[in-house]
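Researcher: Sequence recovery benchmark, item below. Answer with residues only.
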């Protein structure tokens, strides 16, 4: 009974006007542009990564367009992998593009991405050893003979950086730990990098890190959009405050939600606006990145909050403006 009473108190604070709701609004994932719901492309990517881990496949890379949701996928994947493979050490690396790239900056970046306090201390060799020991210790702690590294923005690394990572992988192997990498990057730039490495005869790097390019796509049809919007409606996938039964869409439209409205009901109206913009640019809607989906949803919810009430239904003109403001049109060139 105490737990039920506490939940009612939280719901009241979150869904009724007042200072508590205002504070929650400011920190809401939708407001902060930090939505990470499980989309069909994200599930596809996770299935690929799960298979890579099980079979220890080398050289997997996922290629996607700008703002397709690669970074969000990495963050969600780390959480899911921790549940599926509790004894698998998983690290993340953001491949940065420095004006002057040295081994020192490379190893500092790897240490910094892992939250290591020694990222700026010591010589290049000391940083390298520190990075190697960090990965080995992580593997030893979990009694694992594998280490999975998820690399984001992989197109920013060139031949030298991938060579340095290869050398780290070889040293790990000497300690009976196998480095498995999954690289996320921009489609055109990462393909160009593969061609350059092939032209230079660096099949060692291709085979180790960029052997198997896979597409990381956006949403491709109304049904996939519907599934994505359903995640906004489902507190099991999008609860806020965390550990409550308040979904993202209920938080912003509590009275409409109580009356039976769901964000998923808006699927066709939303999709038609994306389609209309694409047609106006003589394009077809074949892959809409999550940046534009989440942006359009956010614009819609913010604009419609004052209209929240029983019987609410979105209108095409509401979605027209929400999709326009998402910036999707600027990507069609």
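Model:
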């Amino acid at each position: 009974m105490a737990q039920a009473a506490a939940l009612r108190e939280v719901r009241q604070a979150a869904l009724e006007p007042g200072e508590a709701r205002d504070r929650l609004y400011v920190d809401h994932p939708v407001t902060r542009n930090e939505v990470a719901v499980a989309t069909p492309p994200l599930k596809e990517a996770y299935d690929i990564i799960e298979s890579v881990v099980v079979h220890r496949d080398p050289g997997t890379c996922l290629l996607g367009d700008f703002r397709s949701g690669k970074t969000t996928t990495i963050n969600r994947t780390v959480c899911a992998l921790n549940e599926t493979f509790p004894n698998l050490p998983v690290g993340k690396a953001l491949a940065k593009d420095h004006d002057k790239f040295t081994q020192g900056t490379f190893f500092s970046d790897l240490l910094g991405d892992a939250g290591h306090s020694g990222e700026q201390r010591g010589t290049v060799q000391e940083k390298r050893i520190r990075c190697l020991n960090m990965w080995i210790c992580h593997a030893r702690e979990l009694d694992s003979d594998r280490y999975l590294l998820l690399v984001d923005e992989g197109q920013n690394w060139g031949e030298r950086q991938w060579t340095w990572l290869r050398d780290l992988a070889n040293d790990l192997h000497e300690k009976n730990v196998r480095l498995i990498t999954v690289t996320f990057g921009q489609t055109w730039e990462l393909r160009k990098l593969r061609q350059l490495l092939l032209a230079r005869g660096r099949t060692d790097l291709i085979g180790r890190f960029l052997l198997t390019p896979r597409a990381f796509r956006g949403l491709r049809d109304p049904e996939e959009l519907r599934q994505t919007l359903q995640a906004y409606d489902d507190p099991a996938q999008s609860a806020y405050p965390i550990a409550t039964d308040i979904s993202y869409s209920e938080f912003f439209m509590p009275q409409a939600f109580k009356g039976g409205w769901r964000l998923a009901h808006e699927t066709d109206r939303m999709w038609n606006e994306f389609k209309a913009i694409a047609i106006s640019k003589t394009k077809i809607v074949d892959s809409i990145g999550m940046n534009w989906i989440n942006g359009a949803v956010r614009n819609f919810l913010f604009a419609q909050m004052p209209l929240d009430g029983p019987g609410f239904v979105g209108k095409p003109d509401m979605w027209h403006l929400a999709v326009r403001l998402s910036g999707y049109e600027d990507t069609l060139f």
